[in-house]
Amino acid sequence: MAALAPLPPLPPQFKSIQHHLRTAQEHDKRDPVVAYYCRLYAMQTGMKIDSKTPDCRKFLSKLMDQLEALKKQLGDNEAITQEIVGSAHLENYALKMFLYADNEDRAGRFHKNMIKSFYTASLLIDVITVFGELTDENVKHRKYARWKATYIHNCLKNGETPQAGPVGIEEDNDVEENEDAGATSLPTQPPQPSSSAYDPSSMPSSSFTGIQIPPGAHAPANTPAEVPHSTGVASNTIQPTPQTVPAIDPALFSTVSQGDIRLTPEDFARAQKYCKYAGSALQYEDVSTAVQNLQKALKLLTTGRE
């Protein structure tokens, strides 16, 4: 992908989007779709903050040039041309990053890469708002990820041992953005893959663990966004984990849409979104998540309910 023209210095008014722009730069080669939507979020947010001050207008103009250049380079990529595909791509990417960090946290493996993954996941959930309002689940994941990044960063900085898992967060307290945690650089060596499987059944109940994670479908030890391309890690170092496919409700096979069920455009959009999520999950060979989302789509289309 051709290099983008550099941006002018960031105006002080746009401090709140600096980490989203940094995330965009980090993903220019790793995942251009993620990079595009990070810049789009920064553009939309910047316009709301200040679009009149000369420095801000100049910055937003250059950022718009970058967006146009990216759009041309990505051409007919469905994640750019079709909003629902882009939303599914971004949400799935953020979830994988969140699960990787959460997996490391629950196993008591605290390191810079995990902190950065938590924080970046929270930033990417911000970016999902370019498609509309966040779900309650995503709001909780964003708050939890940002709190975890700050908490673990501060513990390690002070020589303390963090508590693993969702312990100690107070839901009423907003998490302040920690620039040090967000700017944590990647370690020179990627974390070593864990040979132990992640057992979701051992997860304590918490309002922040609403993600449905089937057994064996734990996030890879090295997420695509966090491993430098030159790591030299052999593809056979990570042993595949057998996946447990969730039981399929037999009633779904015999369910026929009733004549009095009227699906709204929103119902069709949600069903299509579930199908896109399933397709995205299959890209990661995550059969369980694909099956779960296809069942949701089928139930919605045949009953009008989720």
UniProtKB/TrEMBL annotation:
InterPro entries: Vta1-like, Vta1/CALS_N, Vta1/CALS_N_sf, Vta1_C. Coiled coil: none annotated. GO terms for biological process: late endosome to vacuole transport via multivesicular body sorting pathway; protein transport. It is a peripheral membrane protein. Residues 194-207 have a biased composition (Low complexity). Keywords: Acetylation, Cytoplasm, Endosome, Membrane, Protein transport, Transport. Residues 169-180 have a biased composition (Acidic residues). Residues 232-244 have a biased composition (Polar residues). It is found in: Cytoplasm; Endosome membrane. Residues 265-302 form the Vta1 C-terminal domain. It comes from the Eukaryota. It holds the Pfam family Vta1_C. One of its GO terms (cellular component) is nucleoplasm. Interacts with VPS4B. Interacts with CHMP1B. Interacts with CHMP2A; the interaction probably involves the open conformation of (polymerized) CHMP2A. Interacts with CHMP3. Interacts with CHMP5; the interaction involves soluble CHMP5. Interacts with IST1. Belongs to the VTA1 family. This is Vacuolar protein sorting-associated protein VTA1 homolog. It comes from Mustela putorius furo.
